[in-house]
Specification:
10% strand, seven-stranded parallel β-sheet, 337 residues, alpha/beta
Length: 337
């Protein structure tokens, strides 16, 4: 394990299903602190502690590995100014070089990425589903580095990852393909070829974009000043379809300079029967054809990925709101007078 991520769903589960945090919640509530303040205090402490655990790895690898992520309030996904302000505040409060602030790759989130990068803040760009949006996310990071360099500020300590979500793509596309297969006809065979392949095909086509941008002339100038390439990070890698290999989104996506965030049960499965081999750049022409065939089936991958982004924001909001309610339920009211 080379790093760790967090999100409101993880914290909600930990707080709701254990008593580990109860005393601290009670103490802060009796001091009159609200749920959001309590949440930030608990998550800051946990992320700082995790970052300290990974600090030797961070130092040993020269800042390449050993990061811990904390995201901004998901309700700010469509608020550029609010995202910048909260990310800036969280970064200052954490006060650790080996943390990422997670910012969603919405249309409003990307300008925040550029601004935060220019200010020297490490950003994990999350909720990426589509190739055009991934390109924009990478360019947002590069633009931030360019702005920082233009101001004469160092960039050699900065880094970023672009978190590309995978299994959710297949979860949304597969039912459409299964419907076509069930109808029979000329397109059934084509749909069968696509089943369970679109997410990995998307990842395999994202990697050439990464190489184009971070091995190209534009980034070369930044690299000469010590800038680090933004690594692709594979997220949502637990296989949700029981018919698929439980290590599908690990084995097929192993490649240089990438990161894979995995649920513990998926990691355990890979330890048990994984077969390490660099496969990310295999079958790239077929991956391109897999995406090009979707319009023949009446499926727009751009519409699908935009819907996934919109739903992803909501899926982040719900556990955050649930966490606020959990904290409220665990918080005693301060006595009057």
């Amino acid at each position: 394990m080379r790093g760790m991520t967090s999100n409101p769903a993880i914290f909600e589960k930990a707080i709701a299903e254990s008593h580990v945090y109860d005393d601290e919640i009670r103490a802060m509530a009796l001091e009159g602190k609200g749920s959001k303040t309590i949440y930030e205090s608990l998550t800051r402490r946990d992320v700082q502690a995790a970052a300290d655990e990974f600090r030797p790895l961070y130092d040993r690898t020269g800042g390449k590995d050993g990061y811990v992520s904390l995201e901004v309030d998901p309700h700010l996904a469509h608020d550029t100014k609010g995202t910048v302000e909260e990310a800036r505040r969280l970064w200052g409060a954490l006060a650790r070089p080996n943390v990422f602030i997670k910012v969603p790759a919405t249309a409003e989130g990307l300008p925040a990425v550029t601004r935060l990068t220019a200010e020297g803040i490490n950003v994990n760009i999350t909720l990426l589903f589509g190739l055009p949006r991934y390109r924009q996310a990478a360019q947002a990071y590069i633009s931030g580095l360019e702005a920082r360099t233009a101001d004469g500020k160092p960039v050699n300590h900065l880094t970023s990852v672009a978190s590309f979500f995978l299994s959710r793509i297949d979860t949304m596309v597969d039912p459409l393909l299964e419907k076509i297969i069930a109808q029979g006809g000329d397109k059934a065979g084509l749909a069968r070829q696509e089943l369970g392949r679109v997410a990995v095909a998307s990842a395999r086509m994202a990697y050439p974009i990464y190489k184009e941008l971070f091995y190209g002339q534009r980034f070369k100038k930044l690299a000469e000043n010590g800038a680090r390439a933004q690594r692709l990070l594979w997220a949502s890698t637990g296989a949700k379809n029981p018919d698929y290999s439980d290590v599908k989104y690990i084995e097929e996506l192993i490649g240089p300079e990438t990161v894979n965030t995995v649920p513990l049960e998926t990691l355990d499965a890979y330890r048990a029967h994984g077969r390490p081999e660099a496969r990310l750049e295999q079958d790239v022409p077929e991956a391109r054809r897999a995406l090009e065939r979707l319009p023949e089936l009446g499926i727009s991958i751009d519409a699908i990925t935009q819907r996934l982004e919109d739903e992803g924001v909501e899926k982040f909001n719900k556990p955050f709101d649930k966490l606020m309610k959990t904290l409220e339920q665990k918080s005693p009211r301060p006595a009057n007078g």
